[in-house]
Description:
- The structure is a homodimer.
- Chain A is an alpha/beta fold.
- In chain A, about 30% of the residues lie in helices and about 25% in strands.
- Chain A contains 15 helices and 24 strands.
- In chain A, strands 1, 2, 5, 6, 7, 8 and 19 form a 7-stranded mixed β-sheet that branches.
- Chain A is globular, with a radius of gyration of 25 Å.
- The termini of chain A are far apart.
Amino acid sequence: MTTKDIYVAIIGAGTAGLSARSEVAKVTDSYRVFDPGPLGTTCARTGCMPSKAFLQSAHDYHRREAFGALGLDGAKDVQAIGSAVLAQTRELRDDLAGGVVDGMESWQATHLVKETAAFTADGTLRAGDAVFRPRATVIATGTRPVVPEKWRDALGDRLLTTETFFDMPDLPARIAVIGLGPVGLELGQALARLGVHVTGFDPSPMQGGISDPLLQEHLEESIGREMQIVQANADLSLASDGSVTVSWEDGEISVDRVLVAIGRKPNTDTLKLDCAGVMLSDAGHPDLPPGQLNVPGTSVYFAGDVSGGPALLHEAADEGRVAGFYAARMKDATFSRRVPLRIVFSDPQISSAGETFETLQEEGDSIAMGSASFSSAGRARLARDSGGVVRIYAEKATARLRGAAMIAPAAEHLGHLLAFAICNRAQLQDLLRMPFYHPTHEEVLRRAIRAALAECQVEQEALEGTRCHDTPVDAPADKTT
Amino acid sequence: MTTKDIYVAIIGAGTAGLSARSEVAKVTDSYRVFDPGPLGTTCARTGCMPSKAFLQSAHDYHRREAFGALGLDGAKDVQAIGSAVLAQTRELRDDLAGGVVDGMESWQATHLVKETAAFTADGTLRAGDAVFRPRATVIATGTRPVVPEKWRDALGDRLLTTETFFDMPDLPARIAVIGLGPVGLELGQALARLGVHVTGFDPSPMQGGISDPLLQEHLEESIGREMQIVQANADLSLASDGSVTVSWEDGEISVDRVLVAIGRKPNTDTLKLDCAGVMLSDAGHPDLPPGQLNVPGTSVYFAGDVSGGPALLHEAADEGRVAGFYAARMKDATFSRRVPLRIVFSDPQISSAGETFETLQEEGDSIAMGSASFSSAGRARLARDSGGVVRIYAEKATARLRGAAMIAPAAEHLGHLLAFAICNRAQLQDLLRMPFYHPTHEEVLRRAIRAALAECQVEQEALEGTRCHDTPVDAPADKTT
């Protein structure tokens, strides 16, 4: 067996790995990408793509409840066909995943090794029958859903994860969703909207990843109307009639299927990274300094959620490109992470930008908060939307925007706007100088910004920056009638 | 008849007048607002509010065409009931207009004069039996739809404007829309979606106010699928069978109703402004210097679309507040207008921010343009959206964002983001440093930004700002396999 010297080995052809490859290929052809398949990225195969296709059907179906108020007849004749919803989800998923694979065509034959790769005792990388000696390695093997072994053993195919959920031939009548982070919340609400009886379980009040109590309250109220939410740890067992028994401190229910969405664990167990000088934590994560993607003193780079970060495409793509860029140059991969942006595609949507209520707690009184409700706002009423609430966090001393969180219609867009503002170190006054068109959800954002600004210790501008400051203004005229 | 001296007279209790009042009332109680009614602002009574309520029904109804692809049955059983759509539109309109009137309660009894006001030869202001001598006057009388006299005479109530449109008891079978600016385009498309046979007429290719030929092309293609668009001047006459004949250079059609949306004219004809030293143009507009709201040398201030600006609530509110602020202080009302933002609530929506293709023409080659299509983008495909296109305008020399225009899903939100960026004098690179979540329409915007940046004469950053510039980077490794 000959050993081939290469500049860069990229293990994993997901979003991070493919992004790394694109940077590596700009400077050298001496690289290989290792992936045993199935190809097509987590995003396209089991993540964003199928979930958003599925959610779209659910949210469109739910919309019929506004038909009467809008002057449209026939809402009761609209039916969601579970098998058809799942079939179209798979069709779109396969098409999008196929597109990813098509994008690999120019280099696949020469640079893709369709094998599982692992380090060996002598520091080489073995993949099937081939052995490589890479100068640098990018680990981009991603993660997989966490499922307690005893649940998997007891429940068999009654237990679903995002890996299997979209392959169901039809929707079950009753489902329990274990874990109400973004994935559990999105799919749980969608299932409920499609007519499935859904019970969601999570011991934490941070459903959808929200730490602000004002938003938690609103979330419980709005999404809690559609699915039952139990704030507890659940246990699962198989009942004699073939159903699944979900039990918790205060109760017990029977369901047909269980979706387990309690987190993901890194695909690092078979890599034998210790042979490359990299020690992993018990959870399987490398110990990376903040803002660095390679283990100090090694040329092993990590990109994507494998290293413990969020399973978000845009961050995985960033990390992949940064890791690839530096791996090709054998330099430490330091980088500035973008301003955090999180979106949950529930309805109303949830989003947060920048710092969170939780991370700002330690700054206590120095943070101004302003909130506004979407419920009675013009646009939400016109659109027959379900309302929502937004909260803005800013520095009292400077009025600089630090973060924001919301449950709101169009939260994905408002979140992008605020993320850009934070990214540009904007003060609240800067935001108030922009135009706010009528009637839009952005107008509600403005109310929250004004409320936060009112708490700040900065001079409040008259007329929000539209006044031309070249013109001198006297003291106000006296108050006489 | 006694003459009452007051500090400020505000003529018109619409958006601009009410905004002026709020600023005036902060410094003096010596003011009056004159309005013969009906009260409730153009926005709430005949503008944004009823039109958006009407559009919501149309767009929701249209959405049924995606049901099959989404796994939802029964689309063919959904019916738009024209009379019900109009009834809910009026209900929401009346409720929102009522809310405006309720907001006037605290000062209405003491400060509102429900009469038409006009200046007299001696410079006083007469309103019914009362006479006032204001130190300053804010003219906020708004505009009304332009309708050629001969059309009105010939067609009677077959001719509609936004003043009468929403009071129709039911939808006509066939309608001609004369004028395809934002109003004509929005209502024309909505009517078509609700099952009315619509033919739209406009001699200009700038439908929806769009000057960029790339967007014009897309608009014709997308909205032209739903309603017939004739690029010509139309003439109207009453046929013997009671229908309306619409004739133009190349043809003639019969319709049941005509919506005339060819512009608005200022309500200045009965004010006798010459008595206050203000000369008006033939079109009825005052001659105001750029960025100033009072006629130089006079204490007559103009706020809102009466002075010839766009009929947009947020600009009317700005002008009202600025005019009121300075009228109360007897100072020249100079101000910095916000970055322009225009939104048409068609589907796809149309929006533009900052400068336009038209205004940038004179800068010729110094402007970089980058565009991107929404058609094949992940999110548009997942949402079964109808696609769209966005174009970004930037300064080649500096990569500073100057403007943008788009026909796109969520264009209202992307427009706000870009308006904020322009407002903050952002460069394209600043925008590329923000997070772009997946899958969102913002990702398409990023493609257009990148395309524009590629045309700029600035250094292209590796890794779009995520690379930490503290780390030195050698020249790329050599290209060896």
